[in-house]
Amino acid sequence: MTITGINITEFEIQEKEILVEFLSSGCWQFHSTPQIPKEKLLKQFESGYFTGSGQRTFLIKKSVDNLLIGVIRLFDLGESTDDDETPLFDIKIKEEFRGDGTGKKAVSWLTDFVFTNYPNKLRFEATTRIDNIAMRRVLEHCGFVKEAHYRQAWPDKEGNRYDCAGYGILRRDWENKTITPVKWND
Ligand SMILES: CC(C)(COP(=O)(O)OP(=O)(O)OC[C@H]1O[C@@H](n2cnc3c(N)ncnc32)[C@H](O)[C@@H]1OP(=O)(O)O)[C@@H](O)C(=O)NCCC(=O)NCCS
Questions:
Q1: N or C: the chain end with fewer CB closer than 10 Å?
Q2: DSSP reduced 3-state for 112
């Protein structure tokens, strides 16, 4: 899929080496493992973390030169395209390409992808560390609503605990371009 300035394609197994290189060379400060060892990634491949049942991985590349600038992992998709399990995702964009609108374009594309290809998905969710302002802005921009606040739920590599926010978008809101607020006082 081509979106202004970027292409998003589903990961193919012959791209394993560039994916491992991309993920192991980045620093993902808001994740529990900011620097992911290659060995861990290779084990994850073996266990189906990227392409196993209910999991799909997409690569974000610059259209101009096909340079890999980001990775999306979509998971909890369930057993088949008819499954109604609520999926979640993770997105990682290389540091020097952040803040340029790629996150918003990619998450918007991913939301369209999920609701278009999985007719029984009524919701799509994401969680992020509370201080990950860029991710929270991206989610809000793409129509996700904050539905949960988990206290001390997100450990960093030193064992410090951060609060984390849960976001969701409803198929109904995606279809109608609306935002259904959470009934906090119910
Ligand atoms: C989170 C991430 C995917 C966002 O992608 P991106 O391409 O940088 O995002 P965009 O450029 O599309 O949009 C970022 C938005 O956050 C805002 N933003 C970024 N940093 C901010 C900060 N420190 N304070 C306030 N706003 C900030 C930008 O202004 C922009 O919002 P706007 O368009 O309303 O101005 C990317 O930064 C990333 O990969 N981070 C590391 C991995 C990660 O944390 N992934 C999420 C795991 S849950």
A1: C
A2: helix
